[in-house]
Amino acid sequence: MKSGIAAFVIACIALADRLARTSGVMLVITAGEETGCSGAEALVRANGQLGQVGALVVAEPTGNKPLVGHKGALWLEAETRGVTAHGSMPEQGVNAVYKAARAVAALQEFDFNVARHDVLGGPTINVGTIQGGLNINSVPDRAIIGIDIRNIPAQSHAQIREQLTSYLGRDVTLRTLLDAKSVWTDPHHPWISEVFQVAWNVEGVGDDIGAAPYFTDASVLTPAFGSPPTVIIGPGELALGHQTNEYCLVSRIERATEMYAQLVRNWCRI
């Protein structure tokens, strides 16, 4: 992420003297994307709508390949409640972990019943965490399940919550932890076609339409800027995200800088 920021900052500094009396460029640098776009959310809360822009570039690591969207992320906390009792007398309690186990088994079989997206594929659901009980010799009166859902543009998070609430039944209470919208731009939009051409000319990539497997600040910034065409493109290898030896090739940073500069020159006609 730092490499993408460095590349677009350097590109714009190099062109700064020529941007007067053009449509201009806005640089947005936020923290907290990994924790649910919290920095971008804070920016929007502080300023309201951020105004209109004609196009948006998100400098996430893509190996400099242009990507035209990503799935949304809906993180839910599912809670089950019971009645505590001594572990030697379980019949006197209600075991919240058993309720949670039934819910987890049901989630493994859950079907969103929605057609796959041509590029993004289908939605996914993953149980990432489960916690319950205070000690081994007590009947647990509370259990928590962490659910990670990645949705496609045809689905709204409100609809998904309604589906799961009905599916899991009264023993399970859902609370939203993260609500990051999906992003998709028509790959045939003229500006997107221009980005693909620049990426091909500079990096030799972009001969097929792709989307990011992760979510980005575009979840917040694209609607805040009036839903402009949005592309995700930046240095850093997409497949290395969150790995121990995550790295970025210096040559990618240099070519990303060149691509961003070319996009600015084209947009601002300089």
Identify the notable features of this structure and list them briefly:
270 residues; alpha+beta; Aminopeptidase; Alpha-Beta Plaits; 2 domains; 4-stranded antiparallel beta sheet; two-stranded parallel sheet; 7 helices; 10 strands; elongated
Structural account:
This protein has 2 domains: about 1-70 and about 185-270, Zn peptidases (Aminopeptidase); about 70-180, Alpha-Beta Plaits, CATH 3.30.70. It contains 7 helices and 10 strands. It is an alpha+beta fold and about 270 residues long. The protein is elongated. Helix 1 (about 1-15) crosses helix 7 and helix 5 runs antiparallel to helix 7. Helix content is about 35%, strand content about 20%. The protein has helices at about 1-15, 40-45, 95-110, 155-170, 190-205, 220-225, 250-270; strands at about 55-60, 70, 70-80, 85, 125-130, 140, 140-150, 175-180, 185, 230. It starts with a helix and ends with a helix. The chain has a 4-stranded antiparallel sheet with strand order 5-7-3-8, with helices on one face.
